[in-house]
């Protein structure tokens, strides 16, 4: 058969670039950028193209694996699932369902069926121990939205096409391609702002690839709360706030104004490392711009005040009249009314439960992954005894990887659903092979509301599952069946459960047939904000309609503004600028004096050819050869006696790693940047050979190092010292 060219889209990161897959005899020959995609228009990055190497990787797990005394052995699906089911029933019999847990990692958010069935299983089984990559990534953003708008999942995005002034904090979109916003060709979008006479200002301790293209403000790590408070202080003190917008939209203005009044740029200069006059000028320019947007990403999420920082970012937009306004921060419309359904049924929220260890509030039903190890090792009622991980590599991605790796060995049962034997599941009892994104149908549900140009795309599977790989939802369903659980069938989810059962009865094949995610998707799309209402609304969405647009579909030219009263769920429909949690933190905000034994700070960074921990086995990305290194300012390296390119030992109060030093004036002095996700010892040969170290050996799971409001891990600004290391 001659090769077929099939349009689909990339599900590695958030622009979701359109791709064309060339498939011959059921095998993927290549991936290339789709010129007909309405937004990415022939653009894709090296990772998307190199996914062919992941798809065809000889190291991929293609059959269920069971751990034996000397390595993994291949077993049949029935054998694996029956044994897992029996062991789970035993554990539940003795300790209850609360001893079961799940950690789902970053790639799960790119699969609607995977996430839907995890939530269904969680609610149906009444599971408590749910963890995700969110507490290393974005949960602070959700909690900030909860406090401001009364709606966890309402995250505003910068209206890039219409803004005159974009203030970026702790993000490097030229390399990461944008996150918590879904924007293909982001570099072009950013440069268009300056081309039309606007400004882009990048606040980052490293002169990043993005900062180089625009204006750079070299802040000290973790200085963002102080900088933002100072910007607000200047704006209020100089009467630059948009009083009209505040009267219309906000509550608590006076309290916020009082709380920030002590943060003059002079007071915060030492902590931020920024000249007071520069901060004043920034505040004035931002306030006076016709349309300004403020955007923060992981550099603002992984410090010690993550929720406060996310809160102040939006507060700055509100105070300058840039919330829900063209060119400011705007609220996209969901494809499927998840937030509304969730709010109505009260399925998952914030602080409905508290963690057994550390008493942290749950965020969307998940607890901080940083307490997972202690939940396993601490005896007592509710101890975590059986853990599933899917699409996650937490030993590499959560703080104190070594502690977690040791804790996992104490589990009664550990099952992982993955593409690889990774650095976490290498000690699992079972590894169950998942399909890749080319082997499943999909639609990027959570990202539609995050696209400044709203669009969507539905794709059928491009390839049949390799080997015995199965989709995650099928695996979850099979496990749920074996312990007598029906997804969504208990607690506040019961109405949904009833719907699922009704659907099941309506499916030809009778009550034995289980509803599929695809069936629910079609129903949710058709009844959703863009839906066709089963023919009542012409041109509305349904799966059938989306199939008619295989290259994707633009839903509107821009996000409509003037929607705030619909978004805000507080009774008075006003944005709350002074919730007590935030005012309390602002009032007590202090820094502890630096410990002279650890005078430097480590922060993270992303690399164009890495994707978190899991693409280091893709040969096209590893040519060079590539290695992980620590970026250090030449002055800091010289002071420590470390010549460029030589091994450097980085030591924190929690651990030590050794990496080659890469001296660069891009770093602000005192700060070291190290990418995470290296130092492999799984079943991926090339990744193992690439060397490097797990930077999360330096980070902490001590309860006082976990951010209180959202349970965020502290992964940026970790105190360290450096010294020359012998070759090891
Ligand atoms: N120090 C430090 N640590 C960090 C960060 C940082 O900046 N600094 N960043 C944090 C952030 S933002 C994130 S999102 C986390 C990521 O942390 P995790 O989500 O825990 O880990 P990943 O590295 O994304 O690993 C994903 C795993 O999923 C597998 N996989 C890939 N595709 C699929 C699929 O379709 N199905 C299944 N079942 N498996 C799949 C891969 O093989 C891999 O094992 O790391 C966090 N950790
Ligand atoms: N190529 C590539 N793309 C990716 C990923 C990848 O691994 N590789 N990962 C994806 C994932 S999971 C995510 S969440 C996104 C993340 O997207 P981004 O957040 O844009 O990614 P980073 O490059 O980590 O950018 C964070 C920036 O914050 C800076 N920073 C660190 N500490 C501080 C601080 O205290 N204050 C301030 N102001 N800045 C600070 C760092 O120097 C860094 O430049 O990227 C996604 N895209
Ligand atoms: S930027 Fe690269 S990895 Fe991200 S969606 Fe596009 S092609 Fe895929
Ligand atoms: Mo992430």
Textual characterization of the structure:
With 728 residues, this protein is an alpha/beta fold. Helices cover 32% and strands 17% of the residues. The chain is built from 27 helices and 28 strands. The strands form eight sheets. Strands 5-4-19-18-17-6-7 form a seven-stranded mixed beta sheet, with helices on one face. Strand 4 and strand 5 (71-74) form a beta hairpin. The longest helix is centred in the first third of the chain and has 19 residues, at 77-95. It is globular. The termini are far apart. The mean pLDDT is 96. Iron/sulfur cluster is lined by residues 10, 12-13, 15-17, 44-45, 47-48, 177. One ligand MGD is lined by residues 13, 106, 137, 169-173, 175-177, 179, 203-206, 208, 219, 221-222, 224, 297-300, 303, 603-608, 610-612, 673, 716-717.
Summarize the structure.
By secondary structure, the chain is an alpha/beta fold. 32% of the residues lie in helices and 17% in strands. The strands form eight sheets. Strands 5-4-19-18-17-6-7 form a seven-stranded mixed sheet, with helices on one face. A six-stranded mixed β-barrel has the order 23-27-24-26-25-28. A four-stranded parallel sheet has the order 11-10-9-13.
Keywords:
single chain, 728 residues, alpha/beta, six-stranded mixed β-barrel, 28 strands, globular, binds ligand MGD, binds iron/sulfur cluster, binds molybdenum atom
What's the layout of helices and strands?
Blueprint: E1 4-9, E2 18-24, E3 27-33, H1 46-55, E4 65-68, E5 71-74, H2 77-95, E6 100-104, H3 112-125, E7 129-132, H4 139-149, E8 157-158, E9 165-169, H5 173-176, H6 186-195, E10 199-203, H7 209-213, E11 215-217, H8 224-237, H9 243-249, E12 250-251, H10 253-260, H11 265-272, H12 276-288, E13 292-296, H13 298-301, H14 306-319, E14 329-330, H15 338-345, E15 350-354, E16 361-363, H16 372-377, E17 386-390, H17 394-397, H18 401-408, E18 413-418, E19 430-433, E20 455-456, H19 472-482, H20 494-506, H21 517-527, H22 543-547, E21 553-554, H23 564-567, E22 575-576, H24 580-588, E23 600-603, H25 619-622, E24 630-632, H26 634-640, E25 647-652, E26 655-663, E27 671-673, H27 685-689, E28 718-724
Parallel strand pairs: 6-7, 6-17, 9-10, 9-13, 10-11, 12-22, 17-18, 18-19, 23-27, 24-26
Antiparallel strand pairs: 1-2, 2-3, 4-5, 4-19, 8-14, 15-16, 20-21, 23-28, 24-27, 25-26, 25-28
Helix pairs in contact: 2-19, 3-19, 4-14, 8-11, 8-12, 8-14, 11-12
The site of molybdenum atom has 3 residues, from loops.
């Amino acid at each position: 058969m001659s090769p077929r060219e099939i349009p689909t889209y990339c599900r590695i990161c958030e622009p979701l670039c359109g791709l064309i897959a060339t498939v011959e005899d059921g095998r993927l020959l290549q991936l290339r950028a789709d010129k007909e995609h309405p937004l990415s228009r022939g653009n894709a990055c090296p990772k998307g193209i190199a996914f062919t190497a992941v798809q065809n990787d000889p190291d991929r797990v293609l059959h269920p694996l069971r751990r034996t005394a000397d390595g993994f052995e291949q077993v049949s699906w029935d054998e694996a699932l029956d044994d897992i089911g029996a062991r789970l029933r035993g554990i539940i019999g003795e300790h209850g369902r609360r001893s079961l847990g799940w950690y789902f990692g970053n790639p799960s958010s790119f699969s609607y069926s995977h996430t839907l069935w995890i939530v269904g299983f969680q609610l149906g089984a009444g599971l408590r121990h749910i963890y995700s990559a969110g507490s290393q990534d974005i949960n602070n953003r959700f909690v900030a939205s909860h406090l401001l708008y009364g709606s966890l999942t309402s995250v505003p995005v910068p209206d890039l096409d219409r803004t005159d002034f974009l203030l970026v904090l702790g993000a490097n979109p030229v390399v990461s391609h944008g996150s918590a916003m879904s924007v293909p060709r982001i570099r072009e979008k950013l440069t268009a702002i300056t081309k039309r006479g606007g400004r882009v200002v990048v606040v980052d301790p490293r002169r990043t690839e993005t900062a180089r293209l625009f204006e750079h403000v070299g802040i000290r790590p973790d200085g963002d709360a102080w900088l933002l408070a100072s910007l607000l202080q200047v704006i209020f003190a100089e009467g630059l706030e948009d009083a009209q917008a505040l009267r219309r939209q906000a509550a608590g203005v006076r309290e916020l104004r009082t709380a920030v009044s002590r943060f003059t740029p002079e007071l915060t200069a030492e902590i931020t490392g920024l000249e007071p006059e520069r901060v004043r000028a920034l505040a004035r320019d931002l306030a006076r711009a016709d349309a300004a947007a403020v955007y923060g990403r992981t550099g603002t999420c992984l410090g010690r005040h993550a929720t406060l920082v996310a809160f102040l970012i939006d507060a700055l937009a509100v105070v300058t009249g840039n919330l829900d306004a063209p060119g400011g921060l705007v609220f996209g419309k969901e494809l499927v009314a998840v937030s509304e359904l969730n709010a109505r049924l009260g399925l998952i929220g914030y602080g409905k439960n508290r963690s057994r260890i550390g008493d942290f509030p749950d965020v969307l039903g998940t607890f901080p992954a940083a307490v997972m190890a202690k939940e396993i090792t601490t005896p007592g009622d509710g101890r975590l005894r059986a853990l599933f991980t899917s699409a996650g590599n937490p030993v590499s991605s959560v703080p104190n990887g070594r502690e977690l790796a040791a804790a996992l060995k104490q589990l009664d049962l550990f099952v992982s659903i993955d593409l690889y034997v990774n650095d976490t599941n290498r000690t699992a009892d079972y590894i169950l092979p998942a399909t890749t994104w080319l082997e499943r149908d999909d639609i990027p549900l959570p990202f539609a509301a995050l696209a400044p140009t709203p669009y969507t795309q539905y794709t059928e599977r491009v390839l049949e599952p390799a080997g015995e790989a199965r989709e995650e939802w099928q695996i979850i369903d099979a496990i749920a069946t074996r312990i007598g659980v029906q997804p969504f069938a208990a607690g506040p989810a019961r109405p949904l459960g009833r719907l699922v059962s009704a659907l099941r009865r309506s499916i030809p094949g009778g009550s034995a047939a289980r509803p599929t995610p695809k069936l629910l998707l079609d129903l949710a799309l058709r009844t959703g904000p863009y839906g066709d209402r089963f023919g009542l609304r012409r041109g509305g969405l349904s799966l059938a309609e989306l199939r008619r647009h295989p290259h994707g579909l633009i839903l509107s030219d821009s996000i409509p503004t003037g929607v705030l009263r619909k978004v805000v769920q507080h009774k008075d429909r006003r944005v709350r600028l002074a919730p007590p949690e935030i005012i309390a933190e602002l009032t007590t905000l202090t820094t502890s004096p630096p410990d002279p034994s650890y005078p430097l700070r480590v922060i993270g960074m992303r690399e164009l050819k890495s994707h978190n921990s899991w693409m280091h086995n893709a040969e096209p990305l590893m040519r060079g050869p590539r290695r992980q290194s620590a970026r250090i300012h030449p002055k800091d390296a010289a002071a420590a006696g470390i010549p460029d390119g030589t091994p450097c030992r980085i030591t924190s109060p929690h651990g030590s790693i050794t990496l080659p030093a890469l001296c660069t004036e891009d770093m602000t002095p005192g700060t070291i940047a190290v990418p995470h996700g290296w130092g492999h010892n799984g079943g991926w040969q090339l990744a193992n050979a690439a060397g490097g170290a797990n930077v999360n050996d330096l980070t902490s799971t001590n309860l006082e190092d976990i951010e209180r409001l959202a349970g965020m891990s502290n992964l940026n600004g970790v105190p360290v010292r450096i010294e020359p290391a012998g070759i090891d």
